[in-house]
Amino acid sequence: MSLETKFSNAQLRRINLQSILYLCSCPSQVGVQIDSLRKLYEYQANCAERGRSELQSQVHERIAEATLAAHRIMEDCLQDVLSLEGWDPLTLEMPEGLRTLLEQEIDGG
């Protein structure tokens, strides 16, 4: 079983940083969940390699299986959200219309 990705870790970081900087945290929230799922999958894969019993192997395999499904759903979700909001699909640049700088928000602007 392998984890297929639509977004690299670097691309997720790019989305997350822009989302946080420009006060549009919804894409970032999805990105954080994708990152967590990747870590969970990696943990399960490492545990499965060290499986000490058939039961432990089954447990890790089941968790990894569910993680793959959830990861696929969340990546599809992120792709849809970015498309709906009008992000550039090649550069992953947030559209100008969504950009509200944190400083502007703090200054009341």
From TrEMBL:
This is Uncharacterized protein. The lineage of its organism: Bacteria, Pseudomonadati, Pseudomonadota, Gammaproteobacteria, Methylococcales.
